[in-house]
Design goal:
eight-stranded antiparallel sheet; 4 helices; 30% strand; globular; disordered N terminus
């Protein structure tokens, strides 16, 4: 008897990966009472990110995010978007303000990796970090299997910003930033 193997849908794989990533982020110090930027609505924060992406120095554009019911939970809403170079971006929003920005891409896809990095950098700058603070954020240290964590203090906001990267065995990489409990 001949068996036919059906490929697992990409959406399912991404959802499974995002769930694994979310568990790592929450365990590493995510604070649902500490937005990336106080009193700056999600749409205004997104506008700042797009302004930075549009300066002509970076090579990524971000499509308009759409509500993602599958990633949303209780009071935290998720808005998903794709970059022009293939990265999947999710903004986690609570009470109208952004608490986390996450980027996902397939390992080995250099264009998507560039898009993810440029969106994460733009989000950090939009949150008030300087370029030096952003660069020190990437002094990553191993935390758990396949997970690295970095952090830097943002003087402008007075917040400890944390970055978590997770390399999943299915070939996806996730990178997310959030304000930590410190």
């Amino acid at each position: 008897m001949k068996h036919i193997l059906y490929p697992i849908p990409i959406a399912f794989m991404c959802t499974f990966y995002i769930l694994t990533y979310s568990m790592a982020v929450h365990a590493s110090g995510w604070n649902d009472d500490n937005p990336l930027v106080n009193n700056l609505y999600y749409t205004d924060f997104l506008g700042k990110i797009n302004d930075i992406l549009g300066l002509g120095v970076l090579h990524t554009t971000l499509e308009s995010p759409r509500y993602d019911a599958d990633e949303s939970e209780e009071e935290t809403l998720a808005y998903a978007a794709e970059t022009s170079n293939g990265a999947h971006i999710i903004f986690y929003v609570k009470n109208g303000v952004t608490y986390e920005v996450a980027a996902f891409f397939r390992q080995g896809n250099q264009m998507a990796q560039q898009g993810a990095a440029e969106v994460i950098m733009s989000a950090c700058l939009a949150a008030g970090m300087t370029v030096d603070e952003f660069n020190s954020l990437y002094k990553l240290k191993p935390w758990k299997e396949n997970t690295m964590v970095g952090e830097a203090f943002c003087k402008k906001s007075g917040k400890l910003i944390r970055i978590v990267t997770l390399r999943h065995k299915n070939g996806y990489i996730g990178v997310g930033i959030f304000a930590s409990r410190s």
